[in-house]
Amino acid sequence: MSPSRTSSPAPTRIPARVAFVGAGPGDPGLLTVRAGELLASADAVVIDQVAREAVVQRWCRPDVSIIDAGYGEHGERLTHAVRSKLVVRAAKAHPGGLVVRLMDGDPAVFNGLAEEASACVKAGLAFEVVPGVSSVTAVPSYAGVRSTPGSPSSCWASPTGPPRRSTPSWPPAATPPPRWPSPSVAPAPSSAPW
What we know:
The structure is a single chain. The longest helix is centred in the middle third of the chain and has 14 residues, at 80-93. Helix 3 (80-93) crosses helix 4 (113-122). The protein is built from five helices and five strands, in the order βαβαβαβαβα. The chain is globular and about 60 Å long. The chain has a five-stranded parallel β-sheet with strand order 3-2-4-1-5, sandwiched between helices. With 194 residues, it is an alpha/beta fold. It has helices at 33-41, 53-59, 80-93, 113-122, 135-142, and strands at 17-22, 44-47, 65-68, 98-103, 127-130. It has a domain at 17-135: Cobalt-precorrin-4 Transmethylase, domain 1 (3-Layer(aba) Sandwich), CATH 3.40.1010. Helix 2 (53-59) links the parallel strand 2 (44-47) and strand 3 (65-68).
């Protein structure tokens, strides 16, 4: 009878989990508590804005891997598809760890969250979304400008202009009624009225 070999199963490599974290409007002090916790324990942080390095330096460990997902080798802006691949690749490179995808403002506003989260689902990666303070509301608040009228409102819209024009061409329906002061004409209040 020949000796039998006992083979142990190959260890399974559990990929890192991914956290899509809102970085807020640019002030590192405006991160949510959860965002700070995740950044402090991250093994890798994927950023697409060089300005976010200040956030990484303030909140992350010194040994964290920083992955630039903003521009390619020849200075071209990376697409959402390429960024999605970078996030998945980073998660597979840090088995059992945590990859934070640091996104401007709130991850769900203008950031390509849907594409990158879909790539995580396809790759079998666990992920969470941590909302951030959106610059859509933070910037007017800093300036003392209300985002909504004083009366109750059933709708609030944040229009965006076309990316290649400096002056958007607004349809007549998008022009505010004359009873509301235009933010570009109204004097800035000395202190916020609320």
